[in-house]
TrEMBL record:
Domain O-acyltransferase WSD1-like N-terminal: 37-156
Highest taxon above the source species: Bacteria
Protein species of origin: Streptomyces macrosporus
SUPFAM superfamilies on file: CoA-dependent acyltransferases (SSF52777)
InterPro entries cross-referenced by the UniProt entry: CAT-like_dom_sf (IPR023213), O-acyltransferase_WSD1_C (IPR009721), O-acyltransferase_WSD1_N (IPR004255)
Protein name (Swiss-Prot/TrEMBL): Diacylglycerol O-acyltransferase
Feature: compositional bias, Pro residues: 186-204
Residue ranges of domain O-acyltransferase WSD1 C-terminal in the record: 282-421
Length: 437
C-alpha cells in the first residue's frame, strides 16, 4: 500500500516548497438562503463521487525524505462527511462571520494528513443575505482550472463551456497546432535563471501570510483594455501592468528595492490542456517568468511593456522553458526537484505571481440561489512574495491579493490595484503613478 501512485514532476515540485502549505482555493458567493450541509454532501457525492483524483491521499516520503518521492494512495471513495464541512461546525467556528479573515486562514494553513487533500466549506454568513462555498486543495492535487471545473460541475446552470486561463492564453499544444511556425525559434531561448530584484523586506516585523479581496470596477477594466491602440489588451496584460503599479505604490521607490537595478520577475500560469481535455483534473499547467516593468512611471507605458513581454516570451516558449526545467530536475530525482523548489522560493527569483481567468459562461446557481461573484485564492508563497489573482465572472471582476510580507500589505495591495486600473482612464499626465510610501 505504501508504494502507491507516483506523482507527476509538477505535483512533486509543489510538495517540495518548504514552510508554506501550498493550499489554493476558490470561493463562490451566492445570494439567498444556504443549503443544508447534508444536502450539499449528497450533491457532492452525486457529482464528484466518480472522480478518482478526489479519492487520493498524499503519502509523505520515508526517510531519508530528501531522496524519496511522495506517493498517492488511491481510495475507493471519499467520505463526504469529512470532505464537506459547515464552517460553523469547524475550527473557525464563530470566526466564519469574518469572511475575508476566514479566507486568509484557509490558504495560510495546510490541509490535514490522512484524508484526500481537498475540502469544501459551507459558509452560511458571508455578508448580508449571502452565503459562500469555498473549495480548497493542496496544489499538488489540483490546479486552479481544476477547481473551476469542479465547482462548475457542482452548480446548476452554465453553458457547458469552460473558462480560459490568463485572459486569452490558450493551451500550448493548441497554439502549436494553430501556428506551427511559432512553436519555437530555431534555437531554444535561454531560460531566465539569474536572480532578480526582491520586494523590500518587512522592517521591524516578521512576514505574515495575509489575504484580502476587493471588487474591481468593470468600467475600469474596460478602459484599461482600450488604453492601447489596436487590439484590446488581454486580461492577463491588464493584471500584470496594474499589479506592477500597485507594488510601486505599496513598496516605494523601485530603485531602492533589494537587487536593483536587476529586473523584478513575476510569473503567470499557462493552461496546457489541449482541446478536448478541458475537464482534466490535476496540474496540467506550466508557468512563464517575465521581468515586470516596475521602473516605468507611466501606467500606459507599463501596459504596453507587458504586452511586449507576453508577445516576446510566449506562452509557448515560456511555458516550454519551465516544463523542460522541471522535467530535467525530475530525471535526476526528488532531491533535484526540492533544490529547484528552494531556488524558486528565494526572494529574488519571482516574488510576484499573477493569474487571471474568466469563469465559464453562466448564469450559475445553487439550489436556486444565484452565484454573484467568484473570489480566487492563490497560494501563500515563501516570505517576501505577493500573489494576485483576478477573475471575470459574467462581467463581475474580483481581485484577491495573498501576501507573505508586512502585516496589512494584502489590503494595501488590493486597494492600490483598483487605483492603478482607474489610472488607465485618466490623461497620461494625470495618470503618472508613483509610490505613496
Amino acid at each position: 500500500m505504501r508504494n502507491g501512485i507516483a506523482l507527476s514532476p509538477v505535483d512533486e515540485l509543489l510538495c517540495a516548497v518548504r514552510g508554506v502549505p501550498e493550499t489554493i482555493g476558490v470561493a463562490a458567493l451566492f445570494a439567498g438562503e444556504p443549503p443544508r450541509v447534508e444536502a450539499l454532501r449528497a450533491r457532492v457525492a452525486e457529482r464528484w463521487g466518480g472522480l478518482p483524483r478526489l479519492c487520493r491521499v498524499l503519502l509523505r516520503p520515508r526517510e531519508p525524505a530528501w531522496l524519496r518521492p511522495h506517493r498517492w494512495l488511491a481510495l475507493e471513495r471519499f467520505d463526504p462527511a469529512h470532505q464537506v464541512v459547515d464552517a460553523e461546525d469547524g475550527p473557525d467556528g464563530a470566526g466564519a462571520a469574518d469572511f475575508t479573515g476566514l479566507l486568509g486562514r484557509l490558504v495560510a494553513r495546510p490541509l490535514p494528513d490522512g484524508l484526500p487533500p481537498w475540502r469544501l466549506l459551507l459558509v452560511r454568513r458571508a455578508g448580508e443575505g449571502r452565503f459562500a462555498l469555498v473549495l480548497t486543495a493542496h496544489h499538488a492535487l489540483l490546479d486552479g482550472r481544476s477547481l473551476e471545473r469542479l465547482l462548475s460541475r457542482l452548480l446548476d446552470g452554465g453553458s457547458g463551456r469552460g473558462g480560459r486561463t490568463a485572459g486569452g492564453v490558450r493551451a500550448v499544444r493548441a497554439l502549436r497546432d494553430a501556428h506551427p511556425d511559432h512553436a519555437g525559434p530555431p534555437v531554444r531561448p535561454p531560460l531566465p535563471l539569474g536572480p532578480g530584484r526582491a520586494l523590500p523586506p518587512p522592517a521591524g516585523a516578521d512576514p505574515r501570510p495575509e489575504a484580502a479581496w476587493t471588487e474591481v470596477d468593470a468600467g475600469a477594466v474596460r478602459a484599461a483594455r482600450r488604453a492601447l491602440p489596436g487590439l484590446g489588451a488581454t486580461l492577463n496584460e491588464v493584471l500584470l501592468a496594474a499589479a506592477t503599479g500597485a507594488l510601486r505604490a505599496v513598496h516605494g521607490e523601485p530603485d531602492r528595492w533589494p537587487g536593483a537595478p536587476r529586473p523584478l520577475y513575476g510569473t503567470f500560469p499557462v493552461d496546457l490542456r489541449a482541446p478536448g481535455e478541458e475537464d482534466a483534473l490535476g496540474n496540467v499547467v506550466s508557468v512563464v517568468r517575465v521581468p515586470l516593468p516596475v521602473d516605468e512611471d507611466d501606467p500606459v507605458a507599463r501596459l504596453a511593456a507587458c504586452r511586449g513581454l507576453l508577445a516576446a516570451h510566449g506562452p509557448v516558449r515560456g511555458a516550454d522553458a519551465a516544463t523542460r526545467l522541471v522535467d530535467a530536475a525530475a530525471r535526476l530525482g526528488p532531491w533535484a526537484l526540492r533544490l529547484l523548489a528552494a531556488w524558486a522560493g528565494t526572494p529574488g527569483h519571482a516574488p510576484v505571481a499573477c493569474v487571471a481567468f474568466r469563469w465559464p459562461r453562466g448564469p450559475w446557481s445553487l439550489d436556486g440561489g444565484p452565484m454573484e461573484r467568484v473570489i480566487p485564492l492563490p497560494p501563500v508563497q515563501p516570505p517576501g512574495t505577493a500573489g494576485l489573482a483576478l477573475t471575470d465572472c459574467g462581467g463581475v471582476f474580483t481581485l484577491c491579493a495573498v501576501t507573505h510580507t508586512l502585516p496589512g500589505h494584502a489590503r494595501l495591495l488590493a486597494d492600490a490595484f483598483g487605483r492603478e486600473l482607474a489610472a488607465f482612464a485618466r490623461p497620461v499626465g494625470a495618470a503618472l503613478s508613483g509610490p505613496t510610501r
